């Protein structure tokens, strides 16, 4: 685990140094799909991850909707076009942010969709 952490930190540093050195020719973009946002359920929803004890009547039934079956869920996709700083000690988390929402059922995440979103955002960023 510690070896992996070392290589991850080293890679992250080398990436930033590369971006600074070739700043004139480089565009640094962070992109990520965030957690699904459930919409439309007005009842308790259980993930089943943290099963905790619950107070309930002896003859009562504890029930909750399954988290995988919602009426609708949206997945936000976030892309950050980084303003590459002049020094590695400065922030690499400033720049233009693009957010889009996808219907999780009809617009699932895949490589082609990510490439299309990246191309669209790239055109918006550099339209001049």
UniProtKB/TrEMBL annotation:
Protein name: Uncharacterized protein
Entry superkingdom: Eukaryota
Organism, as annotated: Rhizophagus irregularis
């Amino acid at each position: 685990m510690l070896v992996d952490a070392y290589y991850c930190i080293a890679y992250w540093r080398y990436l930033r140094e590369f971006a600074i050195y070739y700043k004139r020719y480089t565009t640094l973009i962070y992109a990520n799909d965030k957690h699904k946002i459930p919409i439309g359920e007005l009842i308790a929803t259980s993930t089943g991850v943290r099963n905790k004890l619950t107070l309930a009547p002896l003859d009562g039934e504890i029930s909750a909707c399954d988290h995988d079956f919602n009426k609708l869920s949206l997945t936000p996709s976030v892309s950050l076009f980084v303003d590459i700083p002049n020094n590695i000690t400065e922030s690499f988390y400033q720049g233009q942010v693009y957010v889009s929402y996808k219907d999780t059922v009809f617009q699932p995440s895949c490589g082609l969709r990510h490439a299309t979103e990246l191309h669209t955002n790239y055109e918006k960023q550099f339209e001049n």
